[in-house]
Design goal:
The chain is mainly α. It has a single domain, classed as Hypothetical protein af1432. It has 10 helices and no strands. Helix 2 (about 45-65) packs antiparallel against helix 3 (about 70-80) and helix 3 packs across helix 6 (about 100-105).
Length: about 200
């Protein structure tokens, strides 16, 4: 007979529920921090992007399990809160632990660096993180390659494609499924058109 405090599904079930609680806490935090932000060029709440990246990570885990799905999901949900909302790494560490904070910090480009240098710096910091964090960056770029915004000039479209190729080259070994999806998205990404 189980006591009132004993969990009925054993250790695995308890771990799954604890992960779910951490993911929900991260989602609530992200919803609060990004509540005024929309997907660029639209009125769609930014949570759509955070959810898309998270779903990409979850789908990848179904194909080929990630070594640390819990870390990947929390980082996916929170991946833009330092870069876009000015949340400090210290606050993330206090709320979600040092591993999540370090992962989100690595995924955040530094604003004090030129754009090209900021991406190279971020990729270098991501490579020092567990593979779960690499997977978040792959998932993020997959979601961002749904087509170039119409107002982007040809050189920006080309630069974004080039960045995606760099991400794939440096981080693709973390997960075959995500790497394959990113490779397909790069191939399908609109080629820059002259005069744009």
């Amino acid at each position: 007979m189980k006591t009132a405090g004993e969990f009925p599904f054993g250790l695995v079930g308890r771990a799954m529920l604890e992960s779910s609680e951490r993911w929900q806490a991260a989602w609530e935090f992200a919803a609060e921090r990004h509540c005024q932000q929309s997907v660029p060029g639209t009125e769609i709440p930014y949570l759509r992007h955070l959810g898309a990246v998270t779903f990409e990570v979850l789908a990848a885990d179904r194909l080929e399990p990630l070594a640390d799905l819990d870390l990947a999901v929390q980082c996916a949900i929170l991946h833009d809160c330092i870069e876009d909302q000015g949340v400090s790494e210290a606050e993330l560490a206090q709320r979600f632990g040092p591993a999540v904070a370090a992962g989100v910090a690595a995924l955040s480009k530094r604003s004090d660096l030129p754009k090209a240098a900021a991406m190279a710096d971020s990729l270098q910091r991501i490579r020092r993180q567990p593979a779960a964090v690499w997977c978040v960056k792959l998932a993020d770029r997959i979601c961002n390659l749904n087509g170039a915004p119409a107002h982007w000039p040809a050189d920006k479209v080309a630069a974004y494609r080039c960045e995606a190729e760099q991400i794939l080259a440096e981080l693709g070994s973390a997960h075959r499924g995500l790497a394959a999806r990113l490779q397909r998205r790069i191939a399908d990404y609109p080629a820059p058109t002259p005069g744009r």
